[in-house]
Amino acid sequence: MTIALNRDRLIHIIKRLLVHLVLLTGALFSLFPFVWMVLTSLKSYIEASAAENFFPSHWLFSNYVQAWNQVGLFPRYFENTLFMAVTTTLGVLITSSLASYAFARMRFPGRDTLFIILLSTMMVPFEVTLIPNFILMRDLHWIDHYEALIIPWTASAFSIFLLRQFFKAIPSELYDAAVLDGCTHFQFLRSIVLPLSKPALVTSALFTFLGSWNSLMWPLLVTNNPVMRPLQVGITSFITDAGTEVQYLLAAVTISVIPVILIYFFLQRWFIEGIARVGIRG
Known about the structure:
The protein is mainly alpha-helical. The protein has 2 domains: 2-41; 72-278, MetI-like (MetI-like fold, Orthogonal Bundle), CATH 1.10.3720.10. The chain contains 14 helices and 2 strands, in the order H-H-H-H-H-H-H-H-H-H-H-H-H-E-E-H. It has helices at residues 2-41, 45-50, 62-70, 74-105, 111-120, 126-139, 146-150, 157-169, 172-180, 185-196, 198-213, 217-222, 231-235, 246-278; strands spanning 239-240, 243-244. Strand 1 (239-240) and strand 2 form a beta hairpin. The two termini are 46 Å apart.
């Protein structure tokens, strides 16, 4: 009996070790590109171009200062990106909260049909809407303006779907009690629904912020003035006809990644909870 228990325990420990080994291997593979990027950003131009040594022979932290100063508008790119990402995220949270509440808690003709149509827009590739959206921005005279960078992306079908799943799971008894206290739909949304849906709101905000922060194709299309360009477009300045300054390029990329990593670390608890709970919502 004791021998069988010890054998089962040993098998259980071995299985757990194998699982942790697989997870650790996957984590190392995922982390490798980031480590390579940081180490290459600290190399000289010759070392970075040759890519022979994994570690730099001389750690050139001055590459970050040079990357920041070499493109004169790099601080401006950073400011544009931060303003664009924050404003777009706030816009998505506002529009998605209102639309999700309507789809989840309000009854009106064609509600389910409209929701299906909304979900179907998620299957339309971004490239299909690129030209029509650009023509619209041109006709509105929004080229080289923040409106073109922000307003087209202040509504998200994914965020509406995500928040709707949470809003539907809130007990109807809470709404009935709120109505007895004289609450309107908007007061119920603001005072009860939104505080109970923090994980979903954080998840939506993170996805929106990340997408806006890493946006390249659309800003490149609607901005001609370098002063209006965001960070990802500005980073392409290190790629010239004379060649790519790899060490400065990767230093600039590292700088652009740091804010996203910090935001994720601060909000990861709500983000993981939001992703985990959305799968069990009806």
